[in-house]
Amino acid sequence: MHLDVVDLKAFYYRTQLGRVAQRAVRTQLEQFWPSVRGQTVVGFGFAAPMLRPFLADARRVISLMPGPQGVMHWPEGHPNLSVLTGETQWPLATGSADRLVLLHGLETSENAAALLEEIWRVLAPGGSAVFIVPNRSGLWSRSDKTPFGFGRPYSIGQLEAQLRSHRFQPGRRKAALFIPPSQRRTWLKLSGTAERLGQSLSRGPAGGVLLLEAKKRVYAPTSSGTPEAIRRPLRVLGGIAQPAPEPVSGRYGTRRGFVKKCRNIS
Could you tell me the residue ranges of all domains in the chain? Predict the structure, then answer.
């Protein structure tokens, strides 16, 4: 079930908790890709809040928003870079995206398998995608006061297994949102400190949101037939003489005699 674009926009741009979440997740995302100069960066779902840092250096930035969610003009004050699209039919050429960001796209998808196949198609060979999903064991997935409380939350193992089954190679992982999903000023003021402590002290993905980078895995083409000609095939039975057929004896003697008698009769 996709969330409405109006509600997503209101959370990320009009609430203090949404701006805190936007800043915390985006900080971790930028560490995956310090530079995207000359590359095409694509976002799907409601990835617009994560794409703004890439506008300056990327060759092209596109924000795809699924039809059930709806679309908004983005970025504000600039020519529109957002596109309304089908969930599994993107208006992009095969292999055209160097970097891809999913936020509120995978966990709310009605057909996650088909969505992953479309992501694999659009990514260029050697391209990578960052999947941002709610942590199954985190506090944010247990509250419906934020967009991370909707859809299917993931553990890091579940997410990696699903990506491997669709020809992706999981790689670096990060976590974000170490404060409770609360609008209280105390937690909001401590958000920066909580993020720094969470990144330095947690040994596993303990935050409310998981970020996992995955590479497009391309297999070498397979050829039909024998890959290399056999120059000197082994003749295992080459020295054994072929046995001669034994003569058939009977009423008319041997087989040759039988054939001769038949000709005389005819």
Answer: 5-216
